[in-house]
């Protein structure tokens, strides 16, 4: 029987994750705010962890039921065959969240689930009720998620969030999550044949994620996942899929992408991260202000996450410089993520699409402008 799996994602990125899953041959069966469900075999949870770029984590949906009463919750959780998921000696840390539900007290959800699962594991082993479970083996983290009186018991297969690719070890003024950066690249019209410029790239997240996409490099190749210790997805499955992902990487990009920033430290952090991500030769980073940025390339894509707020300087000037840069790049497309209310007016033309996305907790708009298609896509004159 296939597993029911779900990829969680930041609000606004669900459709991107759905498209990524479809490309992996795992079409979504259900999409809701913050999560996309799909079915698959254990190998598919391995592939989803290694390849999904815009998702936060991959979970197994172990069980689901409607419930409004704690006694009933304890009974149903205790009646589940947990030996299918949790080896007897595994640690099973439990987190819980509850939204608009009668089972609203999160600590009670946690402690009841813990007790019910421990008792079920003991009973399955024939131990006396109330015997302690050792919890010394590789962890199987469990999330009790209650939404509108519907309980989902979720096993986290990822561990630290998927944004932790393994290449970032330096911080910058306001780095963006790798999953959000990848989502923006995937929402844009950029592909590996087109130039790309991020004129305020900070620690390099947008161009690095673009280069990884352009080279078909799996974002999870450099890290480990919590499910690597599980009998459900044994080590040879991970090794096999890692080898396949390494094989799938494309050669370096024909022309390097461009990243720029005013801040010298940010530029050197960006170079350092690109090297660590394995795309050091695919991006040219330069210390320069937006006002001096430009490109000789045509039909490129401008991506930017300009500074906003007092901490990051004079946001108006930066946004004006960015709007002017985009207007200089005549046949380019753009995707700019900002909460600045006047950016659209500064550009002076209507965006083709505006999407609400969150950068951390900051509500932003992704302004998307579509330039003309490159001649290779429209049919070039002979
Ligand atoms: C929100 S941060 C970008 C973060 C980046 N996306 C990352 O993931 O690290 C904005 C960046 O704009 C840079 N910046 C501010 N004013 C600038 C200007 N006039 N020209 C170029 N870069 C500028 C800051 O140094 C900062 O690194």
TrEMBL record:
GO terms for molecular function: methyltransferase activity. InterPro entries: DNA_methylase_N6_adenine_CS (IPR002052), RlmKL-like_Mtase (IPR000241), RlmL_1st (IPR054170), SAM-dependent_MTases_sf (IPR029063), THUMP_dom (IPR004114). Keywords: Methyltransferase, RNA-binding, Transferase. Pfam families: RlmL_1st (PF22020), THUMP (PF02926), UPF0020 (PF01170). SUPFAM superfamilies: S-adenosyl-L-methionine-dependent methyltransferases. One of its GO terms (biological process) is methylation. Transmembrane segments: none annotated. It comes from the Bacteria. Residues 44-157 form the THUMP domain. PANTHER family: RIBOSOMAL RNA LARGE SUBUNIT METHYLTRANSFERASE K/L, RIBOSOMAL RNA LARGE SUBUNIT METHYLTRANSFERASE K_L. This is Ribosomal RNA large subunit methyltransferase K/L. The lineage of its organism: Bacteria, Pseudomonadati, Planctomycetota, Planctomycetia, Planctomycetales.
